[in-house]
Amino acid sequence: MDVEIRPHIGVGPFRLGMPFGDAMAGARTWGRVEHSPEGGRPPGKYVVVNETYRFEFVLLFEAGDREELTGIEVWRFRDEAADIRFLLEGIDVFRTPADDLPEILEERGHEVVESDYGFEEVTDLGLRLANNSSFDYPVDEDGDPLYYDYVLLADRI
């Protein structure tokens, strides 16, 4: 299965600016919502767990009058054999080596900047990439993660 990461638009069925009710209806088609803010309404984070492919979406809703989706986090699948790809401009962000992905994006004209917090930011695409989770993902001989395990798409980075 291929899931498209579309900068400034969304990830899979989720769209930035999507109303809360529509996002929750979409979430139920992908898995179960495991965590939500007290009261079950925005603002807050809603963790959508997909058991089939063992990955998570986190849907972000900021405070304000409008209950709209402002960010989408995708956490890498935990099964290396999972038949799922998360594609950004045709590139599998979770299977392309973390050392190579920034270079590929820069070759395509996107500036990749390391933030003060250790994330790689691609501001023109509204993306943040990281490889710092505590899950047991593949590592190199120095123990560093081989791949990114987190992507944030947001209306502003």
Would you mind describing this structure in some detail?
The chain is mainly beta and 157 residues long. Helix content is 11%, strand content 33%. It has helices at 20-30, 101-107, and strands at residues 2-6, 10-11, 14-15, 32-35, 44-50, 55-61, 71-75, 85-88, 91-92, 113-114, 120-122, 127-130, 150-154. The strands form two sheets. The protein has an eight-stranded antiparallel sheet with strand order 4-5-6-7-13-12-11-10, covered by helices on one side. A hairpin with a 4-residue loop joins strand 5 (44-50) and strand 6 (55-61). The longest helix has 11 residues, at 20-30. The radius of gyration is 15 Å and the shape is globular. The chain starts with a strand and ends with a strand. The relative contact order is 0.18.
What's the topology here?
Layout: E1 2-6, E2 10-11, E3 14-15, H1 20-30, E4 32-35, E5 44-50, E6 55-61, E7 71-75, E8 85-88, E9 91-92, H2 101-107, E10 113-114, E11 120-122, E12 127-130, E13 150-154
Parallel strand pairs: 1-8
Antiparallel strand pairs: 1-2, 2-3, 4-5, 5-6, 6-7, 7-13, 8-9, 10-11, 11-12, 12-13
